[in-house]
Amino acid sequence: MAISLTLELADNRTTSAVVQALSLYRSQLQLSIRRSRRKLTLFEKQYGVSTEIFLAEMAAEDLLGGDMDYIEWAGEARLLDGLESEIEEIERVQRQLH
Length: 98
Description:
Helix content is 77%, strand content 0%. It is built from three helices and no strands.
């Protein structure tokens, strides 16, 4: 379900402020994505498997850290998915504003 939002901005200065706010938020998302990818890389190196294989084939019993590592790794993977989806939406909105 797509949601449509129409903004009526007073002038170019207001438009510029919205674009700048979106750019700042996009930068924050990019930092979070890099941080999340680093965390996933640590798990992948520790266990010698990609996150994709971990999610598809592994259980907490397969990990030295047990439930805690499983929860952290799976949670980080889901977080990254959400961040990447969010940044795609921000970029789509930014393209429409230009």
